[in-house]
Every structure is written in structure tokens, then in C-alpha cells.
Design a protein that fits this description.
The chain is mainly alpha-helical. The protein has a single domain, classed as Growth Hormone, Chain: A, CATH 1.20.1250.20. Helix content is 83%, strand content 0%. It has helices spanning 3-21, 26-32, 37-65, 67-86, 91-118, 125-154, 156-177, 193-200, 204-233, 238-254, 256-266, 269-286, 293-321, 327-355, 358-380.
């Protein structure tokens, strides 16, 4: 197996492990320093806002400057943001440092996804994206588990220090294992940005992939932002809250590589995406009506399984239908839809919870995802390429 994809997976794992250590802790830490339910949603929204705004520019830069420079910048910013969060004492500071954290992840995602596309071939693209996404979701699996347990024994602030250290380790690994554009063939974009965007929107299946991406992330954004507070309100411990994130990520992870294998064998990616979308819908809608750890862990496990199948197919579909010289731009726009979905959902879900209930809020997320499934099915039934 190509060593480059193994190294890319290791760097991605360590970065996401470090980043997700803090994910279940930030809402609880924010609540401790006086944040309201709506403010907790806005905190997640701040992170996602900067990630949304920055993803396309960083995708373009990865086309023009090469992937490695963006990746190194991303992991350093991730390490710094966790360090700053550890020293926060007000909700405003959490907002500010959340914005900085969003910049880091916005630089990493399009650059690494494009890098994986650069080192792939048509015969192994599904497996390579399966390996890459398995690595990041393994990090997402272990990170919250470690974060929840570590915070239980050593406190919230020390957990953020641990997150910062892990991200810095990812930087060291990237310096020595990620190859620059001298070693990996990267086709630099030679056309204006607006022309690239126009070409991307002529690719019907690419647009369909964006719809599926936004829909799934809209579901997960509201669920992720308030799951710790909801779980705490029904008597679930901090350690068990970390495990909930872990279960979601475990099933998200274990579905990735097998999905990539069958995607390469069967070739038709749209049905994998559609299956994942449909599977996620009812389990998101039910979360707010579940009142114990067993039921919640079962529901988030199915959500993770469906998301893993869909996103393995989405990444390989985008690389297949988009020309390599604008792949970074395409991945930047894709990343914008990821973070935009998470941001909009986390902001909208808070007021719905406050005005009605968690049950109504999560039911709304499920309905939106079902509508996204229908729209994706329509858009994906088109030519792979129009340009």
C-alpha cells in the first residue's frame, strides 16, 4: 500500500484526536463560566463561522502554494487555539478563540483531502479516501473518550492543554511525512477563481455532493452542540458523555474502509451516499426523546454508521468528477458546506431548544436531512462531468 496515504492518515488521526479531546468539554466548560444554552450554540457557531468563511480561500491557496504549507499552518493554529482556550475565563474569550480554532480546521480539511486525491488513482480512490476518513474518525472516536475521562480526573483546563500538545505532535509528524509539491504532482490552478467556481457548479453530481454534505452536517451540528448539555440534564456523567461521542465516531470509523472497498468494486457512489442519508434521518429525529445512556448510545452509533458510509462516497465522488487543477477549490467549497451546515445548525438549534424542547429541535434536524436526501437524489441523477 502506498506509504504516502499511511502517513497522511497518521497525521490526520493525531490532529483530529487532539482536536476532539476538547469537543465534549467545551460546552460543559462554557456552562461553568456562565454561558446560556443559546450562547453554547453560538460558541460552536463561532468555530464553524470562521471555518466556513476561510475554507474556500484556503482551498484556493492549496492549489497555488501546494498542500504541505497549508497543512503545517493548520496544525499549528489548532495547537495554539487549544492553548488559548485553556486560559479562557469569559464567554467572550471562548468566542474569540473558537474563531481562531475554525481557521485551523478550515486550512487542514481542503488541503489534506486534495492531497489524498493527488496521490490516488482511479483504481484505488475509494480505498484511499476510506483510509483517510477512517483515520480522522478514529481520532474523533478516541479524542472524546480520552477527553471525557481526562476531564473527570484532571479538570477542564488541563484537558485543553492535552489537546494543544496532541495538535503540536501532529505538526512534527507532518513536517517529516507529508511530501511537498516537488514530490507529489500537484496541478496548480491557472484560471480565475470565479471561472473555477462556475465550472464546479456545472458539474451536477458535485452540486449533489454539496447538498448531501450540508444536510448531514446540519444534522450533526445541532446534535453535537447540545448533546453534552442534554445528556447531563438526564443524569449522564461527563465520562459517559465522552463515550457517546466515541460511539458515534467508532461506527463512523468502522464503516469507512469497507465502504471505500465496495465503492471501488461497484463504482456507483450515489447509492452509498443516499443510503447513509436515509439511515441517519430517523435516528437524529429520535435523540431528543431518548432518556437513558443505552438508547442514546444506540442512536448515535447508527448516526455515525450512516455518516461514515455517505462521506466515504462523497470524497471519492468529488475527486472523480472534478478536474485536478481545481480540486483544492472544490474541496474548499465542500469544506465550506461542512462547516456552514454545522454552524447554521448549532445557531438555529439553541433557540428551538429554548422555545420548545430538545425533542422538537432534533426532530427538526431529521426533517431537514430527509429533505436533503430527496434533493440529493434528484441532483445526483446526472452526468458526472459537464465541463
Amino acid at each position: 500500500m502506498h506509504n504516502l496515504i499511511i502517513f497522511a492518515g497518521i497525521v490526520s488521526f493525531v490532529l483530529y484526536f487532539g482536536t476532539y479531546i476538547r469537543v465534549p468539554i467545551i460546552p460543559l466548560f462554557a456552562k461553568d463560566i456562565g454561558a446560556s444554552v443559546v450562547q453554547i450554540g453560538l460558541l460552536t457557531g463561532a468555530f464553524m463561522f470562521s471555518a466556513t468563511v476561510c475554507a474556500i480561500p484556503f482551498g484556493i491557496l492549496s492549489d497555488r502554494l501546494g498542500r504541505k504549507k497549508l497543512l503545517l499552518f493548520a496544525v499549528l493554529v489548532g495547537s495554539l487555539s487549544s492553548l488559548l482556550i485553556a486560559f479562557s475565563s469569559t464567554v467572550f474569550q471562548l468566542f474569540l478563540f473558537g474563531l481562531i480554532a475554525g481557521v485551523g480546521i478550515a486550512a487542514f480539511t481542503p488541503a489534506m483531502m486534495s492531497y489524498v486525491g493527488d496521490i490516488s488513482t482511479s483504481a484505488n480512490i475509494g480505498r484511499y479516501y476510506g483510509i483517510y476518513t477512517t483515520a480522522i474518525y478514529l481520532g474523533m472516536t478516541l479524542g472524546p473518550m480520552v477527553g471525557g475521562i481526562f476531564a473527570e480526573f484532571f479538570g477542564y483546563r488541563n484537558t485543553f492543554f492535552l489537546s494543544s500538545f496532541a495538535n503540536f505532535l501532529a505538526f512534527i509528524l507532518a513536517v517529516f511525512t507529508i511530501k511537498g509539491k516537488g514530490k507529489v504532482k500537484i496541478h496548480l490552478a491557472d484560471e480565475p477563481f470565479l471561472s473555477s467556481i462556475d465550472k464546479l457548479f456545472q458539474i451536477k453530481r458535485y452540486v449533489g455532493a454539496l447538498v448531501a454534505t450540508f444536510s448531514l452536517c446540519f444534522c450533526w451540528g445541532g446534535l453535537m452542540a447540545f448533546l453534552p448539555v442534554y445528556a447531563k440534564s438526564i443524569g449522564i456523567s461527563t465520562t459517559s458523555i465522552g463515550l457517546l461521542y466515541g460511539f458515534q465516531s467508532v461506527f463512523n470509523t468502522i464503516s469507512r474502509f469497507p465502504s471505500g472497498y465496495f465503492i471501488d468494486k461497484l463504482g456507483e457512489k450515489r447509492y452509498f451516499i443516499l443510503f447513509g442519508l436515509i439511515l441517519v434521518t430517523p435516528f437524529v429525529a429520535l435523540v431528543g426523546y431518548l432518556n437513558n445512556f443505552l438508547l442514546l448510545s444506540t442512536s448515535v452509533s447508527f448516526i455515525g454508521f450512516g455518516m461514515g458510509i455517505s462521506f466515504s462516497a462523497i470524497g471519492s465522488l468529488i475527486s472523480e468528477v472534478v478536474p485536478s487543477n481545481i480540486r483544492g477549490t472544490a474541496m474548499g467549497l465542500y469544506s465550506t458546506l461542512i462547516y456552514g451546515g454545522l454552524m447554521v445548525s448549532s445557531i438555529i438549534t439553541g433557540p428551538i431548544v429554548q422555545a420548545f424542547s430538545y425533542g422538537v429541535a432534533y426532530l427538526t434536524l431529521g426533517i431537514v436531512n430527509f429533505a436533503g436526501s430527496i434533493l440529493f437524489y434528484y441532483l445526483s441523477d446526472g452526468e458526472k462531468k459537464i465541463i
